[in-house]
Design brief:
Strand content: 5-15%
Largest sheet: 5 strands, mixed
Helix content: 40-55%
Radius of gyration: 31 Å
Order of helices and strands: HHHHEEHEHEEH
Number of strands: 5
CATH superfamily of the largest domain: GAF domain
Shape: elongated
Number of domains: 2
Strand order of the largest sheet: 2-1-5-4-3
Number of helices: 7
C-alpha cells in the first residue's frame, strides 16, 4: 500500500463522500488489488465514462473471463472423469458376467488371470495367495502364484482392500516374468475367509501414471469381492 495511506480517510466512516473515496483510492492505488473480492460486488462502468474508467472496466471483465475459463476447465475435467468412470464401470461389469458364466473352477481362474487383462486393458494380472504349507487348498495351487506368508499383509495391512501405486517397479514375487512390464499397479484384497490363506489380485500397467493414489476404489473393491465369491463358490474353503 502507498506510503501516504495514513493520511487518507478511513473507509469505515459511513459519512465519506464520493470525493473522499476517490481521494483514498488515488492515495492507495494497491487497495483494490489487495482487496480483490470487492470487484465481485462493484458495478462495472460504462463506455461513456472516459478512458480512465474504461481501464477499470477492462480489468473487471478480464477477471470475470479468467473465472469463466477456470469454471469451463473444471467442467471439462468433471465430464472427462464421468466418462472414465462409466467406461470403468462397464469393464468391471463385463468381468463380473464372465465370472458368473464360468462353468468350472479352472474357467474362473482363466478369467481372472488371462481374460481380465484384456477386459480391463492392463498389461499383467496375477492372483497370488500366501504360502501356509500343506494347508493350502489343492484347487488354489492351480494357476495361482504362491507368495511368502505375510506378503499380503505387508502390502495391504490388516484391513485395507485396495492399494494404488504409481511409478513403481513390479515385484517378481507377484508378477513373475511379467514384473518388468509393471510401472504402476493396483493391489486388491481377495478375502476368502478368516481361516483361508490371504489372497490378492494384482493388475499392472506399463504406464507409470495409469494407477496412482487418489483414484476411486469402489469398483475395485467390488471386483475383489466378486472374485472372492467366485472362488469360494467352487471350492470348499474353511469358514
Amino acid at each position: 500500500m502507498a506510503s501516504d495511506a495514513k493520511n487518507a480517510p478511513a473507509l469505515t466512516d459511513p459519512r465519506l463522500s464520493a470525493v473522499e473515496v476517490r481521494g483514498f483510492l488515488k492515495s492507495n492505488p494497491d487497495f483494490l488489488a489487495e482487496n480483490a473480492e470487492l470487484l465481485q460486488i462493484l458495478l462495472p462502468p460504462t463506455n461513456q465514462q472516459g478512458d480512465n474508467v474504461l481501464d477499470m472496466q477492462q480489468f473487471m471483465v478480464e477477471r470475470l473471463q479468467r473465472e469463466v475459463g477456470r469454471l469451463k476447465a473444471l467442467q471439462g475435467e468433471l465430464i472427462s472423469a464421468g466418462r472414465s468412470n462409466l467406461s470403468s464401470q462397464s469393464q468391471i461389469h463385463t468381468v463380473v458376467l464372465a465370472l458368473l458364466e464360468a462353468q468350472t473352477f479352472e474357467q474362473v481362474i482363466e478369467v481372472v488371470t488371462t481374460d481380465l487383462a484384456t477386459l480391463l486393458d492392463v498389461d499383467v494380472v496375477s492372483l497370488a495367495i500366501e504360502s501356509v504349507g500343506d494347508d493350502v487348498h489343492p484347487g488354489l495351487k492351480q494357476g495361482v502364484r504362491v507368495v511368502e506368508r505375510g506378503a499380503v499383509s505387508a502390502l495391504l495391512g490388516d484391513s485395507r482392500e485396495v492399494l494404488l501405486r504409481g511409478d513403481i517397479e513390479g515385484e517378481v514375487s507377484i508378477y513373475g516374468s511379467g514384473a518388468p512390464l509393471v510401472h504402476s499397479d493396483v493391489i486388491v484384497r481377495v478375502d476368502l475367509g478368516p481361516r483361508a490363506p490371504a489372497c490378492l489380485l494384482a493388475m499392472g500397467s506399463r504406464e507409470k501414471k495409469r494407477f496412482h493414489a487418489g483414484q476411486g476404489t469402489e469398483l475395485l473393491c467390488f471386483l475383489g469381492r466378486v472374485v472372492a465369491r467366485s472362488i469360494k463358490t467352487w471350492l470348499s474353503l474353511p469358514a
